[in-house]
Amino acid sequence: MLQIILGAVMLGLLWSIMTIGVYITYRILGIADLTVEGSIAMGAAIAAQAIYCGINPYAATLLALGGGMAAGLITGLLHTRLKIPALLSGILTMIALYSVNLRILGKANLSLLRMDTVYTAFKDMGLDKIAVFVNLGISQLIPIIALGLICVLGIIGILYWFFGTETGCAVRATGDNPQMSRAQGINTNNMIILGLIISNGLVAVSGALIAQQQNFADVQMGIGSIVIGLASVIIGEVLFGKRSFFSRLISLVLGAITYRVIIAFVLEIGMPANDLKLFTAITVAIALALPVFKSYLRPIAKSVKGGM
Description:
Elements: H1 2-28, H2 36-52, H3 57-80, H4 86-105, E1 109-111, H5 120-124, H6 141-162, H7 166-176, H8 178-183, H9 188-214, E2 216-218, H10 225-240, H11 245-268, H12 276-288, H13 290-307
Antiparallel strand pairs: 1-2
Helix pairs in contact: 1-6, 1-9, 1-10, 1-11, 2-3, 2-4, 2-9, 3-4, 3-9, 7-9, 10-11, 10-12
């Protein structure tokens, strides 16, 4: 049981970086950006190919960050400069990235077995031996959890600082009220592009870390990632609140971990793995429809109280 929970925590931490990226576009900018389905695979492909070619894993992860930021830039330019709707811009970039990722990998998938990754240094520090003495079978998870926690906390700290700056506030204002932002002299097009760049950069970093954790990169690993990100965002907001910006960032991480714990237990009780995407889609649909359900139930509750 502990191994299942720690495995879910490990995956939740790595996927929470992608969740934060989805939050920036979906909640802050008000855009459902499908670019993430291509940029997460792009981050994995760049990191895997770079490591395969002998580049330092940390440098490879930074290259993945750059690749994701470039993908966000393209989506932003399509939307703001060519006036293509945001949803369609993301779809176009996502489709293009499939071919780009195949070019980067050279084939459908690339193995990283017996190669150094960003987790190797943590294993060399002996972190993988912490749980060996109790024979829990979780020794391989500890270095990944440790690095994942460091990355998540670092990203939260940087984003909390950035969105408190004048530029960061301009990005948030653009998503809240673009007309008022333009009246205040803010170039909303540039702010949208910046938000998409940051979002897809984080998504690509998440893809790079996930690829190094599972020791391979696959061109199709991004399929359904937007739904996973939305599920994590909604679960985090519903269960852990959204009082301040900092608490929202923390809730995104907790939501991603909670989602992974739910998936782990659903698999444990016997749900076929092929049904996971369906389960996630239904969960997100119900969560998004909660306001509608509440509006239907409110008159019923009032009538019941009036009858009493």
